[in-house]
Amino acid sequence: MPTRRIDPGRRDEDWQGNNVAVRCPSCDTVYIVSEFLHGGARRCPTCEISEARVQGVPNDGNAELEWDDTE
Q1: Is this prediction's pTM over 0.85?
Q2: CA–CA gap between residue 46 and residue 16 (Å, rounded)
C-alpha cells in the first residue's frame, strides 16, 4: 500500500497541533484526523480506502497517509 508523509505545505493538506486534514486519494473526500479525538488514526469516512495517522506536532511528530491502490 502506498504511504506518504503529510506535508502541511501542500494545498490540500494541513497539520495543526495534533490534528491533520487530508484529501483521500481514492474518493477525493477531505477529512480530519486528531491524535486526541481519534486516537491518532482514522479511515476515510466516505470510502474507507485511505487511512491517515498523526502523532505529535509538526516540528516533533509524524503524520502520514496510506491507501490501497488496488481497488
Answers
A1: yes
A2: 23
